Amino acid sequence: MSNRQTPAQDRMQPAAASPLLEAKNLTKEYPGVTALDQVNFELRPGEVHVVFGENGAGKSTLISILAGANQPTAGEIFLRGEAQQLHSVHDAREIGISAVFQEFSLIPQMTVEENLFLGGEPTNRGFIDKDRIRREARAILDELGFNLNPRQRVDHLTRAEQQMVEIAKAFRSDLSVLILDEPTASLTSHETDHLFDLIAQLTKRGVGIVYITHRMAEIRRIGDRITVLRDGRYIDTVDARATSEDDLVRLMTGRVVGSIFPELDLGEPGRQVLQVKDLSTAGDAVRAASVEVRAGEIVGMAGLVGSGKSELLQACFGALQIESGSVQLNGADITGKPPRHSIRAGFLYLPADRRKEGLMMMRSVRENVSLASLDIAPFSNGLWMDRSGEARAVSGLAERLNLSPPRIERAVDHFSGGNQQKAMLARSLTRSYDLIVFDEPTVGVDVGTRASIYEFIVELAKQGTAIVLISSDLPEVLHLTSRAYVFYRGRIQAELTAGQLTEENVLAHFFEREAA
Amino acid sequence: MAGKTAIARPSSGAGDIVKRLFVKLGILPFLLVVALVVFTLMSDNFLTPRNLMNVLRQSVYLMIVSMGQMLALLTGGFDLSVGTILALSSVVGAMAMAAFAAAFPDMIGLAIALGCFAGIAAGVSIGVMNGIGVAFFNVSPFMMSLGMASVGFGIALYLTGGVPVYGMPMEFGNIFGFGVFLGIPAPVYVAALLIAALYAFLYRTPQGRYFYAVGGNLKAASLSGINTAGTLFFTYVLCAFFAAVAGMLLTARLDTGEANIGSAMPLESIAACVIAGVSLRGGVGRLENVILGALFIGLVQNGMNLARIESYLQTVVLGALLILAVIADQIRLRYVASLKD
To answer: Of B120, B155, B151, which is closest to residue B133 (Cα–Cα)?
Structure first.
């Protein structure tokens, strides 16, 4: 594993160390686009091989071909040295290649065991053999050490548990290659630990893991080798432990990048913009939270997924029902007012899930950017739209945020994740806001775009906007905020000022119970 | 990359152009060309100015209903009660007009105005119910409009006892049903006016954009400060308004108020929209295409009449066309993914 900087195609190895899975000169062409250009990839038994690259680099295309979901225009795939033709996910599964994509292939209304055997139900004289399903489901779950009830409906499970079901599904047949596409994107750190334990068990048994992630910390923790793709081309395969973060970013973007976090040289915070007192939401997602945000500061909200950090700001914004407590914006009471009112009062919330809550995927960038400001100039005179004013304003923003390609009439769906995020963030510049809440602004976004999003946020704060940054990514909170609140089970566990913002301090409050 | 695709293209030159046109324009232009050619070959009387004007006049009612239906589809729903709205407005409008005309025989103009108002108000009230159900109680548009279709139809039958309503002033039919000004039938003017108004509203005002936003992503629209419940409510009220206007125009043409007109409207209006590329998933569709879609259906019906195709078989053709359009839409989606722009 010390052969870093050696392109894979030059490496001819003896049969003994033969790779488990090998792809040679994989090419995938769409009309007008070459998504993959003669990419080589090699997976050894028992290794975790990270595929790394910016959004649109070809990672998804590569794994969808390896998993049989997509067919290459040219190139070959070998499993244990034998050439394979994968016409479908089913074909791939038959020979032991299984993938867990970000979008799960589970039927929410069915139980865990029904999902596990979907499409391959054992039968007894033409009828489904329920006893056998139950037995075998139990056996698979026990073997994997998953604490799941096979008879529970999938839609009653947490996202992490659903992911376990998805992984367990891969075990129905003999598994030799497991492909994981950003599996930790929505997992809590505890669930992530569990997943990594499982991966360690699998690699011990000789299963090869293809792992896609944007998170450097994960690469450090479980990666053995990293293959970097850029613009659909193979760049290099390197040793995960011996390669620095800067090197990786350089390989990925093709340029030298320093730290991805910008200098945080904010002045003294100004007047109070947001004041929340004893706020509780229906269903106890947030309990008696009090928060204050001032002009020109970036306030972090840290905590596990579901700890209430996101719900608190949604409630302030008007997207979630408030049970008790008060919210003041610029000294005026906005408790329980709808988002429409908050936006007009200068308070914008940008949601975490851009596909589900942020963007109209089939509409153009232009319409998506201007959506929240159609009642004011330059987008309209209040009554009639100003279409050329709108096009001019959005073009300007697209240029400022480096939208690529800079085509504002193209449907958002046809942009990469990072550029979709830019289209949503551009909304914060269509009106003058006093307070902007960024909820997980860099989820599923490549490192290059992440750096520019951070710069963008700091720039806004420098201009005097009050910023709230909700994030499950700890380094983000540590490097980008001047003050942070840590949430635990709906309560604010701690408020940490700049001097106290260390990893240990924040983590200590992630799990601790009722200390504050 | 550019070099490769340039090499790949000539091999499928003409096919590729057709494919690009299909992705850009949808199935409708192709269907129009096919229909024009086929019917011109089948009947000498088809491609004459007189007949084409006929097609336009006959399509007006469907066109107006389709405009409303398009709004419902844009927001991600649909309205199955448009037929009932047509019927109810026809019956109520005719009864009110006849009653006013009998009570005040000298004020024909007022009777016509009040009758139209009553008819349209009755139709819109169905839309108000639809809107309340969909927007404020989260009833699925399917159930809501299906239920209201039954309610409205029942009321229309109850009011009339199933018999046509007579007694409207002659002038109503003469003007709004059979009137011709500068060689163009009166209903066409009404439709043109409505089209212009809806076009300006949809594409020149923020609220017009909000219909697309609500259908495009309800949650995103709400978080962007759009009054989503209000927009949904308004959608069904407007949809009912258009259907009710069509109902009054049709009443003028028939000279009677009837409870069983418009039964084909839900299917035909949805077909007109879908053929015109309005997405059933919401958020996508253009008004000008919907107008063409309605015209196309009128054209096909007229052509089949001239070609002496039995009316029962016409229903078969219409249903098949609707399904064909949906299939074409799916194929188009696949191409869109590969062509991008």
So the answer is: B151
